[in-house]
Amino acid sequence: MNTILQVERLTHTYSVGTPFQRSAVEDISFAVERGEFLGIIGHTGSGKSTLIQHLNGLLRPTAGRVLLEGKDIWAEPKKIRNVRFQVGLVFQYPEYQLFEETVYKDIAFGPKNQGKTGDALDHAVREAARLVGLRDEHLDKSPFELSGGQKRRVALAGVLAMEPKVLVLDEPTAGLDPAGRENLMANIRDFHRNQGTTILLVSHSMDEIARNANRILVLKSARILMSGTPAEVFARGEELLAAGLDVPQITRVAMALRDRGLPVDPAVYTVEGLEAQLLALKRGGGPC
Amino acid sequence: MLKDITLGQYFPGNTVAHRLDPRTKILLVVLYITALFCAGSFAAYGLMAAVLAVCVRVSRVGLRALVKGLKPVLFIIVFTGLLNLLFTPGEGILWAWGPFHVTETGLRNAAFMVLRIMLLIMGTFLMTYTTSPISLTDGLERLLSGLKRFHVPVHELTMIMSIALRFIPTLIEETDKIMSAQKARGADFESGNLMEKARALVPILVPLFISAFRRADELATAMECRCYHGGEGRTKLHVLQYQRRDYAALTLGVLILAGVIALRACGL
């Protein structure tokens, strides 16, 4: 396999040497393969936000390393900006970072910092806008005239326009209505499928992660609790629930059916998966 | 980072200094500052420093936190010190070079000036360290309530002040977040000349102002929902009442001021 991003024994401690000293991330190691869609879940305060801010060099590790394509990102601290162009990070509620007069100019902020000009810049901006489903007529508007969901798309496009190799999304659908959520996730899915960009998705919503990620990382109290494919992780549903985390709704249904004596495998995380199981049971003449 | 700013920070505690009525503390600071400006000799400044030392000891605020408060004004202190040192005319020239000359009077003035500013700031900081912003504005409102007769909107002004104090940490946190977000888009705040650095602030300031206005709007709505209509007829949850310790502290404060004035009168 082809590793693009590797985190080695990463530790980050806030307020070293004061009574408030506290580790937000402790001894975390994992690797991200090229083209992967990795989901990261964990409670508020489990260290997710601190972890992802290390991936593009916004935070410097207290101990450990972050390797991008095999190179330590802090090998040359002066060139850390180059890392930020390659690992695009979209923060929570990114619409609050918009500042330009027009949507076009705002999306162009990142690629301009990268040094793009002329046709290359124009192409990057239009392509990014298209990817998030913004129409040409939006580009000349002020970002502040748009609706909340559209603003978020503009902010997302602002990062996509840098054409990063890895895209890190921190709760991209937080605060959107269900239709907006599904719409945005569909955009992100399409983007992943068509561009082959590696994506790391941080989310509270198990359903969102289950539906999109190829692999899941579960964080708890600054450490990795589990990692594996959705089937592997949700097979340990009881452990997740014991850790105070959620499982997808359909996994809950499967667990409840199993507790009532049906021979279903609770490691299921899609409606289709459970449907197939139940149909198979019915055909087999089971108690269903 | 930005979070290290200690402006107006409150260190909770339960010492006499914390329990004093906020009005007492404000008055004491006023008395202290008056005394500082009356002081004109090393004896008087020694007394003022001793008074501060005792207050610091009583309040159990770490000296380090107090000294840290001086950091932002370090430049002003050094600047005033040098100005007084190098440009005061007078007898007994010790050293001269071009327009600069150090005189005995200059040396004295510079020392006094630096001491005055340092004591003034540490004294004021001691008050904010031992008084929560809420009770501070509460005290201020009561102290100034006499001005209501002259149609000064005292309650509204102190309400504005307490809201402003309340939102300082929030805004700092917000600035941090916006800075990170723009850095993630390759914004560069470190390099470039002054003009470029000023321009680099636009991507921070615009979102910051927008969010401040949004917050203000939301807060106003929330206050109106709870029927806030200004100070008229508004009662207090905690009614301030002077205790015996407040009278004792105020008496002590007046005595120290009198002492400083007496020292000056004696030509010391």
Present the secondary structure layout.
The complex is a heterodimer of chains A (288) and B (268).
Chain A: E1 3-14, E2 22-33, E3 37-42, H1 48-55, E4 63-68, E5 71-72, H2 80-86, E6 87-90, H3 103-114, H4 118-131, H5 136-139, H6 148-160, E7 166-170, H7 178-195, E8 198-202, H8 206-212, E9 215-220, E10 223-228, H9 230-235, H10 237-242, H11 249-259, H12 271-283
Parallel strand pairs in A: 3-8, 3-9, 6-7, 7-8
Antiparallel strand pairs in A: 1-2, 1-4, 4-5, 9-10
Helix pairs in contact in A: 3-4, 3-6, 4-6
Chain B: H1 16-19, H2 22-38, H3 42-59, H4 63-70, H5 74-87, E1 93-97, E2 100-103, H6 104-130, H7 133-144, H8 154-184, H9 194-200, H10 202-225, H11 244-265
Antiparallel strand pairs in B: 1-2
Notes on the structure:
- The complex is a heterodimer of chains A (288) and B (268).
- Chain A contains 12 helices and 10 strands.
- Chain A has helices at residues 48-55, 80-86, 103-114, 118-131, 136-139, 148-160, 178-195, 206-212, 230-235, 237-242, 249-259, 271-283; strands at residues 3-14, 22-33, 37-42, 63-68, 71-72, 87-90, 166-170, 198-202, 215-220, 223-228.
- In chain A, the strands form 2 sheets. In chain A, strands 6-7-8-3-9-10 form a 6-stranded mixed beta sheet, sandwiched between helices.
- In chain A, helix 3 (103-114) crosses helix 4 (118-131), helix 3 runs parallel beside helix 6 (148-160) and helix 4 crosses helix 6.
- Chain B has 268 residues and is mainly α.
- Chain B has 2 domains: 2-131 and 240-265, no CATH class; 151-225, no CATH class.
- In chain B, 69% of the residues lie in helices and 3% in strands.
- Chain B has 11 helices and 2 strands, in the order H-H-H-H-H-E-E-H-H-H-H-H-H.
- Chain B has helices spanning 16-19, 22-38, 42-59, 63-70, 74-87, 104-130, 133-144, 154-184, 194-200, 202-225, 244-265, and strands spanning 93-97, 100-103.
- In chain B, helix 2 (22-38) runs antiparallel to helix 6 (104-130).
- The radius of gyration of chain B is 23 Å and the shape is flat.
- Chains A and B meet through helix 2, strand 6 and helix 3 of A and helix 8 and helix 10 of B.
